[in-house]
Structures are given as structure tokens and as C-alpha cells.
Amino acid sequence: MILVAVALALLVGVSLGLLGGGGSILTVPIFRYVLGMEAHRAVALSLLVVGTTSLAALVPHARKGRIRWRTALIFGAAGMVGAFVTGRIAHLIPAGVLLVAFGLMMLATAVAMLRGRSGVGPVAPRELPIAKVLGEGLVVGAVTGLVGAGGGFLVVPALVILGGLPMEVAVGTSLVVIALKSFAGFVGFLGHTPIDWTLAAWVSGAAVLGSIGGGALADRVSPARLRGLFGWFVVAMALFILGQELPPAFGLRPSVGLALGLAVLGTALAAAARHLLSPPKAAASLASGAAVTE
């Protein structure tokens, strides 16, 4: 199973390099469901792996000027405070509660990404307001420390929807924030959570290799498509986690097969419903043309 976990870690790196997030969304399930690790240990190890991989993944984005450094460092510093504090108390909260809250938050974030503005366009000439960045950083950092989420699935939407950054810039900027917050959250876990350093090294190494490929793919995928991929990816993983963690609350045994089925079927139904409720492209195009003519 360790070899399976290492292979899946490649996807963690691809996700971080391509989307600027999603690493923890994959890493926590790998440790929790593939290796059967206790939830708090899975969260702690996820923070270490995601932080390490984010450092490697941000290099190609930095070379292409896709990082807003001032925003990233202020957001990251605030996030480190929130992550460290909640990392110290996370072991006091039942694991099932943490993971269910994680899944629900992922769904809310995915909806915001899929419904929000596209974020495609020229890079904004000014940085985001410091007070706004600090507030968002503290909140996202607190989530990072509690559930082992590097926060990309929250940072990217915050930078795109609330901050107005183009998707490709939000992706690069988020990697700096994720690295800072993940390491701070991991330090918060030290002392009360045992760490398998050998496993962390293997998984981190595989994830770093994957991040190189993800960074290369980022140049070949449009920002709008990146946004859609990110949103639906988060939906699928949220449904999988809820499918694993909710049955015990009703006296039922969790099943990986059931969780996978819920993730696939639920995501497909959501995508179909969104397609049916969206105006046809042809009609939208005609309406746009009529407006121009008038």
C-alpha cells in the first residue's frame, strides 16, 4: 500500500503545480484511507508533504512572473499565525468532526469558484489591501491548522473572487501562501502527534516530481479551464470525504467503494444540472449579437 500511496502522491504534485491547490485534498485521503492512518497523524503529515511540494511547485511560476509576492507574504504570514494556533488545539476535536467540516467547506468553496467571475484578464496593477489580506489569511490559516488543508482550495478562490487576481497569478501566489501556512501548522502538531519521517520523505519526493509536470501543464491550459478543473476536482473530493465520514454518524461502516460511487455520481449529476440550468451558448451568442446590433 505504501507504493500505491507514493504513486498517488504524484497526483498531489500535479495538482499543486497545475492548480495552485488541491494537494491536501488528496494527501489527507491518501494517508487516511489508503494507508489507514489515524486522522490527526494524517493531517500533520499532510501539512509537511504539501508544504514541501508547494516550495518546489512555485519555482516555475516565479520564473514566469506569476506570483504577487507582497500579497503572498502578507497573506502567508497571517495564515501562519492562524495555522499554528489551531494546529496546537486540533487534537482536542474529534477526527470525524474535523473531516466532515472539511468536506462541507470544500463544497462551499467549489460552488463559489464555479459561480464566481472568471478572473481572466490582465494582472491588476496594485496589490490587495493589507487589512483584507490579513483577515483572509488568518481565517484560511486557522482552517489549515485544523484539517491539514494547505488552503489552496480556499486561497485560490479568495485571490480570484475577492481579490480580483487572474487565475494564473492566483495559482502561483497561492503556492507561497500554502508553503508558509503548511509548515506553521505542522510545527503546531509537533510534540503531540507522532510523525513517520521516512514515509513523509517518500511521499514528498513523489509529489515534488509531480509538481514539475503540473507546472509545465499550467502553460498549456487556459485560465478559464483551470478554474473549471479546480472547481469540479474539489466537488469530487468533498463528496468522497463525506461518503467516508458520514456513515459512522448513522451507525454504518464506511466503505471506500460507496465513497467513490458518491463522488463520481454526485459530481456527474451536479455537472449535468449545471449544464441544463445554464443558457445555451448559441442563445447567449445571439443575444449578445442582437445587443450589439441595437
Considering the chains and any ligands shown, give keywords for the structure.
single chain; 294 residues; mainly alpha; 78% helix; disordered C terminus
Give a nutshell description of this structure.
This protein is mainly α and 294 residues long. The protein contains 12 helices and no strands.
Structural write-up:
The chain has one domain. The chain has helices spanning 2-19, 23-34, 39-63, 69-89, 95-115, 130-147, 152-162, 167-189, 197-217, 223-245, 256-277, 281-293. The protein is 78% helix and 0% strand. Mean pLDDT is 76; it is low at 117-126 and 282-294. It is mainly alpha-helical.
Can you lay out the helices and strands and say which pair or pack?
Blueprint: H1 2-19, H2 23-34, H3 39-63, H4 69-89, H5 95-115, H6 130-147, H7 152-162, H8 167-189, H9 197-217, H10 223-245, H11 256-277, H12 281-293
Helix pairs in contact: 1-2, 1-3, 1-8, 1-9, 2-3, 3-8, 3-9, 4-6, 4-8, 5-7, 5-10, 6-8, 7-8, 10-11
| Element-by-element helix/strand order | HHHHHHHHHHHH
Quote the distance from N terminus to C terminus.
64 Å
Major beta sheet summary: none
* Fraction of residues in β-strands: under 5%
Cα radius of gyration in angstroms: 19 Å
Low-pLDDT parts are 117-126, 282-294
Number of strands: 0
